[in-house]
Request: fold
Amino acid sequence: MPTEFDLIARYFTRPAANAVLGVGDDAALLRPAPGMDLVVSTDMLVACRHFLPDTDPYRLGHKTLAVNLSDLAAMGAIPRWATLALALPEADEAWIEAFSRGLHDLADRFGVSLIGGDTTRGPLNLCVTVLGEVEAGRALRRDGAQDGDDIWVSGELGAAAIGLQHLLGKLHLHDLEALSCTTRLETPEPRIVLGRALGGVAHAAIDLSDGLLADLGHILERSAVGAEIDLGSLPAHPAIGARPTDAIARHCLLAGGDDYELCFTAPATVAEAVLLAGGMAGVAVTRIGRITRQAGLRGRDANGRIDTLDIHGFDHFAD
Ligand code: ADP
Ligand code: MG
Reply:
């Protein structure tokens, strides 16, 4: 049986090129560049709550880091370092090897160094803290949205949520739809380049982890504004577009979690710069509505009818 220290040495000790001191001491030593703010975020993935326990471990390693990098993307930050705290029910080396590869492969793509963590026995639980840098005063925050701003989202919405409904047997997707949507669910793409490109362009940003309505709601609350969404303009994943009258599909589109796209606001005068940012990042960006002085979140349907949107996003304590 490998010990905790064997596992750390084999799977979680890599050279940390951008740290003064990485894995192996009581703590890591980091030196942020002058003029940069340090950006820190933690996200935990709990088996059965955030992922199905039989999820492919390589994909789970990717997702564990990706959901954290997504928070840095939403701040407009450059990701630099990560720590990993994990509780494992058993030392299944094949599982740990694949998990660590999924995590390291994504870390390598964005130049992120794993600089520490903790490894213990317990119910499967994966917790990453990411650290990044952003030019002082240039972070994208939730509280900057202004009356009249356009509201944008990246990518397509609802794929991850409808993929999960398929895996849970609540709805049946065709083979190709299932492949597309479960891939989005299990290997989300953190929109780091888009977040960087929106610095100095967007007024406010958030990443979509709990669903469009809930997450846009956080921007509205923090910015003390309201919004009107043009429901017909939402960039629905084709699996959702193919089910226009299905209540589960509609719920996935408006309130489904796990897409890890960015939702952001920007004045209409910089619309060209927003489109260029999407081009730089290689992801579509779609204008879905407008920030209003009037509080609340309203949707405009295809007939121009305006109604309050009250489908709540997934709330861990609501069920
Ligand atoms: P301590 O007892 O001083 O807290 P540990 O024995 O828990 O130290 O960890 C030894 C070293 O391995 C530390 O540098 C710690 O950050 C690192 N480490 C432990 N688990 C992980 C992990 N899963 N991923 C990365 N580094 C880890
Ligand atoms: Mg110690």
